Automatic annotation (TrEMBL):
Stretches assigned to the Insertion element IS402-like domain: 11-82
InterPro entries the UniProt entry points to: IS402-like_dom (IPR025161)
Organism, scientific name: Thermus thermophilus
Matching NCBIfam families: transpos_IS5_3 (NF033580)
Protein's name in the database: Insertion element IS402-like domain-containing protein
Highest taxon of the lineage: Bacteria
């Protein structure tokens, strides 16, 4: 991790270990990534948890346009949805239940909090 001060929204090492395999790695053969994926995810979580505008991100986090680019790219690619599903399966298996639920209840706001749900799923899996 970088030398910047940590924020309460930052992922712990254990949380990052759960989420890292679900986040796309930089493409091989291209330019090396300037910003580590963990810092991008930490910045996304900072925005989501603090309810701020992208441009209002603290200057010790990666530039807002970089963070927003990856947030939208991964959203369009379904990365957040896949991460929520994978973490939920892991959590259910850890609790000794079937990986896929047999029923689902969804309200009108369930689909709108997908990215923040990644954080809840990671934290839920980590607390065991």
């Amino acid at each position: 991790m970088s030398s910047r001060r940590s924020y309460p929204s930052d992922l712990s090492d254990a949380e990052w270990a759960l989420l890292e395999p679900l986040i796309p790695a930089p493409k091989p053969g291209g330019r090396p990534a300037k910003v580590p994926r963990r810092e991008i995810v930490n910045a996304i979580l900072y925005v989501l948890e603090n309810g701020i505008k992208w441009r209002a991100m603290p200057h010790d986090l990666p530039h807002w346009s970089t963070v927003y680019h990856y947030f939208r790219k991964w959203q369009k690619e379904g990365i957040w949805e896949k991460a929520v599903q994978a973490l939920a399966r892991q959590d259910r298996e850890r609790e000794g239940r079937q990986a896929s639920p047999s029923a689902l209840v969804m309200d009108s706001q369930s689909g709108s909090c997908q990215e923040l749900c990644v954080r809840v799923c990671v934290r839920g899996a980590y607390r065991s």
